[in-house]
Amino acid sequence: MKKIVSLLLAVVLCCSLISGCSKTAPMTAEKEKTTPGSGEVKKEESDPDKWPTVSFAICTLQGVTDMDIVNQALNDYLISINAGVLANIVDFELGNIGTTLTLMLTSSDNPIDIFTDCFYTNLTGAVSNEQCIPLDEYLEQYPEVVDMIGEQFLACGQLNGIQYGLPVVSSHATSNCYALRRDIAESIGVADKEGEMLDYDELTDMLIKAKELFPDLCFFIDATVSYGIGVDNMGDSSYEGVLLNRGIDTAEVVNFYESETFMNYLEYAQKWKNAGLFLTDPLNADRAVATNLKNGVAGGEFCGGYSIEAVKSSMNTYGDYVVFKINEPVANASSGGSLYYISSVCKYPDAAMKMLSLLYTDPVVAKFVAQGIEGRHYVVDENGCSWFADGKDLSNVNWVAGCATYFPNGTLTYPFETDNSAYFSNMLESNRTCKVTDGLGFVFDNSSVYDEYSAVANVVDEYLLALIYAEVDIDTMLPEFQKELKAAGIDSVIAEKQAQYDAFLNNK
């Protein structure tokens, strides 16, 4: 999808680490400042001047000057449907989101009512810092929100059996793929194999042929994207205890760095290093995938998405690519994604839930918030796809663009800068049909082993890159790495994670 992902790709990857992989923040408290209403849906006031106003944010990379215009248009619509609630959209600059949101989540004078953990925190952090309230009673009042999210995916926002966050409606399952520039694929005679499943032997043979014809290109940029393919890291970017086979038909948490899966990867890494497939001087080079693809340094890279078509849409930002499958889509414990919450400083939580319901279920509300005003910020073609309005681009659109998955339900918006009008409908179909493991919704609380967890993460940071790029003698370095992990306490982390995972499964 030709979203502005060329600028946001690194940020989105960061988001997945923050709101998915970093679900391991220590728990420190369970008390909430605000509680839901009585459970009764109040009769709406007929006078909009008496309606509560609910604040929530958009996150931008550039200045936004149309805030008042969009707020007015949205509120005019809310009045027209007698919503009983008004909106106050505020603008967060990405670089200041941490400071801004932290202040608003502790302020009684300038509070934020609805917030997302995307680019900011994670489920355990939001709960332990008492920043959000339980939503279980509200979901009984708003079953249409549950239907829109999908009941099985609600687990991604639950902690200790309590629903604190609402998952964004997006793709929960991911298929790992490899994308090869089409001209290269045609040159080596594999373009007609698009969509086919490749194992690592087949992929390696294909890329060695590509390297022979295109010696100046690399074909693997960021090894951190690929070294964990085949496991469920359980939302842990340091891989401190994983489920093998992507969590399918297994409940055993194992030491990834002593697993056959990791050993096999290192063998391929050595082959790729010897064949010149890695980025030159990877430990010191700019490993940004977007930069190296756009600048013509790389001819391909591992990638992922809910389908081949979705991956192709995303890769179109960088050119024409042939996409091969590495595995099938799976939703597992690594599939957390970002969540939306009602803040604990919200003065009108009932109204905030009403607004959340509209953001999740009303296409007009969703489009105003995620895309702005049709004709001013975007236009829609005959296929139902949206594009920048004439003369507009990211620098001057004065609203967000191409960031639908940041919002509660981007699937209600028009697919942006793509010819794939079925982008979102196919995404929802993938959620309905994908393989879902028992681990979906698991969140590791590392507070009881926090010192060990931190020590292990430091060891991983010290050794991992050199190993997965085969920049060192693996036979010498790997045993040293494994020994240091043991000394740092990885066995204690794994034992605690296993105990929590067993309890999670027993309580399902």
UniProtKB/TrEMBL annotation:
Keyword Signal: yes
Compositional bias annotation for Basic and acidic residues: 29-48
Annotated spans, Disordered: 28-48
Keyword Signal: yes
Signal peptide (residue range): 1-24
Alphabetical list of InterPro entries matching this protein: DUF3502, SBP
Sequence ranges assigned to domain DUF3502 in this UniProt record: 440-506
Transmembrane annotation, as ranges: none
Keywords: Signal
Protein name: Extracellular solute-binding protein
Organism: Eisenbergiella massiliensis
